[in-house]
Amino acid sequence: MWRFGVPDTVETPPSAKARWRAQLQGGSPPPTATLSLNITPSADSPVGEYRLSARLRGEEKALGGLVLLFNPWCPEDSVFLSDEKEKQEYVLNERGVIYRGSADYISSMYWDYGQFEEDMAKICMRILDVNNENLRDPAGDAGARRDPVYVGRVISAMINSQDDYGVLQGRWGSDYWGGVPPTRWNGSYAILRRWFDSGCRPVKYGQCWVFAGSVGSTKRLDITNTYKYTEGTVLERMVFQYALIGVEGGWRVRGNAEAVEINGPAAMNAPRMERNRVGVPVANSSESPEAPTPQLLLAFEEVSKPLKGEDVQMRLWLKNDSPQLRELSFTLSVQAMRYNGTPAGKIQVEEAERKVEPHKDLSIPVVVPYSSYRDLMVPNGSMNFSAVVTEKGAPDGVFMAVHCVALENPPISIKVSSPCRVGTETSAEVVFMNPIDGTLTDCCLTVSGSGLFKKETTFRLPDLRPNVRVRVKFFFVPYKSGERSLLIDFDCSSFRDMKESCSVTVKP
């Protein structure tokens, strides 16, 4: 509790860590009985909800409540940002970019932070109030909230529902019964709103990028501004790619899903094989360092861009750099891969024998029909090609090549009628054509966007026959001006959660 007055004659205890001030607006008392005050909290006051009351001639009256946040515009605040561009990017920007994929197949999707949507301040305060530290030691937790590092760590822990009232329940697999698949989410507000309205029951389900996006929203509500670097830049993509390639085995963004966690990257000191390495000899670790057998070079090559719904065409190149004829037997295997790099199932295996003339190359076509991978690749986005080649008559002549391919979804388009104005109904149209020789069932379209939709809207669509185009026209009334993002998610039996977005300029 803080006491301050006009004039300020209230003595502040020496132990007080913060001091608030009040000043008459205009500098002198008005002639009427109404007083207008400017109230200035201390820059190191704990963030949270406050009740404000006034006492005059011994009578105290409640004036209402206020929510105090960290202030990056205040030079005395520990989260102060002097650069206006940084404030725009790290605090005010309502849209971010989440990169997913493997080192050679990086895809991006927009994420709607929604930090200025209705009741977001209440939601963030509720997250702080139900954290384990506050439940264990309310006074200590309240005092610690003046530290943005402490608040950031609390929010990080509260996004995961493990062992507390956290926001999201993680699930890694293919069964998301009773909840929403992690790939369905387009932004944080729908998640946080659902958690808040349910009485702090965890929202099902999330995975790494959903946890990250949700953390970004709560920290952008002026609570802290330490999450997320400038989006969409060349440097960001380089950093992302370097992290995927890794140092001594790569980087782990999240730890054990069953453990209590505070987020932060950690190096994984595990043996690894360099990505896209070709002609890797599989050697016995006990063999002597004698002159190596002339190496056979292996490499996979894409014949065309891999697209879901079409046959995947690859080529395996074998280069014999020695003066001897090489008689080889090889095994080619293709596996469906989950997003975290674990195998989801075997798609096909081929075995054959070939001869490679001295100083010659050999090309072996590898075709994966859509009918072979269709079922396994519905919930997964990539497939792993591997080749193990053995040379006849050479016990140590075993070579290996590995290549991971991420399949792109078929195109989907969105167009918004213009101009757009606050409070005026406008329309948008989504167009998609079924590219496969089969009917798409369970089709639904989910649309969202801060400032455009108060909540996510889902349209159930009829089954879509082969090579048939569907057009979905919908209407919305923007309620905030400025640059906005309209986000869509199209889901069906054969293509899961295809994303698209467009920028919308809304005039006042």
Automatic annotation (TrEMBL):
InterPro entries: Ig-like_fold (IPR013783), Ig_E-set (IPR014756), Papain-like_cys_pep_sf (IPR038765), Transglutaminase (IPR050779), Transglutaminase-like_sf (IPR036985), Transglutaminase_C (IPR008958), Transglutaminase_C_sf (IPR036238). GO terms for biological process: nervous system development. One of its GO terms (molecular function) is protein-glutamine gamma-glutamyltransferase activity. Pfam families: Transglut_C. One of its GO terms (cellular component) is mitochondrion. Residues 304-385, 412-507 form the Transglutaminase C-terminal domain. Belongs to the transglutaminase superfamily. Transglutaminase family. PANTHER family: PROTEIN-GLUTAMINE GAMMA-GLUTAMYLTRANSFERASE, PROTEIN-GLUTAMINE GAMMA-GLUTAMYLTRANSFERASE 2. This is (Atlantic silverside) hypothetical protein.
